[in-house]
Amino acid sequence: MEKVEFGDGKDRNGLLGLEQRGARVTDVTDVHALERTDLRPQGAVRPLVLHVVYRFDTGGLENGIVNLINHMPLQAYRHAVLSLTAVTDFSRRVQRKDVSFIALQKGPGHAIGLYPRMYRLFRELRPAVVHTNNIAALECAVPAWAAGVPLRIHSEHGWDVSDLHGSNPRYQKVRRLYRPFVSHFVAVASDIQRYLVEKVRVPQGRVSLIHNAVDTVRFHPVEGEQPTPIPGCPFSAQRHWLVGTVGRMQEVKDQLNLVRAFAHALREQPALRERMRLVMVGDGPLRAQAQALLQELGLADLAWLPGERSDVPEVMRGLHCFTLPSKAEGLSYTLLEAMASGLPAVVTAVGANPELIANGVTGETVPPNDPQALGSALARVAGDPGQARRMGRTGRLRVEKDYGQQAMVADYQRLYDRHRARSN
What is the rounded average pLDDT of the residues 279-308? Predict the structure, then answer.
């Protein structure tokens, strides 16, 4: 499929590389040039869902959009992705060839300067649904409303470091300001649902709870008791006990807490130094800091930080234990993927983590910002491999029962169908 490019002709943000996958990325500086694309409805065609994000890059939110697009029945809806800033190679995870990606190249600050361009874009594409995600994209509901988009859905996926647990009054006011322009809200976890009702004052009937979900075919346990080797990993699953985390390395994910916890575990149980190893997959601003801290603590040879990986299922199957040291979460896709892979999980008690992880049953929860508690919990799990495997098996069963991907996709399709019927 062609890539349509506008403006100065520069290949910003690696967009040309997406051609190898067949994706079309439209770098929009001239909305009227969209007449050269096939996104506009022509006759009786499937309705278009336009997913709006701040940046289409590696992350749980974006992973959810990918899963929704890949697994919703082809005959139900067409899909496109609108990024206020950039579209990265993460878009290659979309398997459908009829999905277009649009990058607005927004600069810092409020997007009000883009409202006229977004208005023209929405009028050109005439989507049946504009589905915005998180507060950074919420304001796009205004030009969508002005352009007459009949259904405007907004999903809240979790918290950032500037708004831990939704406690920032300014962000509550911002969400209340844009509330009238949203037809219906979606929360991915029960604490976010309560926040929308109690703090943002969205009527309960305008909020749906749709849990994140995981592809339990793609993410599955290893056969037998030993993890499989991770390509490129310097550690052996037979000789070592690998505890790992996967995610963007940024402040809210708090990987520095994990480095300190790893050091505490080795101090608490010095015998673990022979076999316990740390795997931290992902890229971002904290990666260099984590490497420096490991070096300072004399642990650089006991940890592996390979950067971002596209083979996350294989990485999960190469670990003995998963850990999530975050300061805040919604309902973590990565945690669901780890549980689906049959891993015990040691996580901070934030967001929906305590709903997923029962102490001694599927893993352990510890307070956030407490490397001693996290390190002690990791040491306990490492000290009882049999119990660790039992917790991993129980976690897999929990995910299969309550967080199957087809149920999530069906919930979103029903939501679109139901509210489109009401708006027509």
Answer: 96
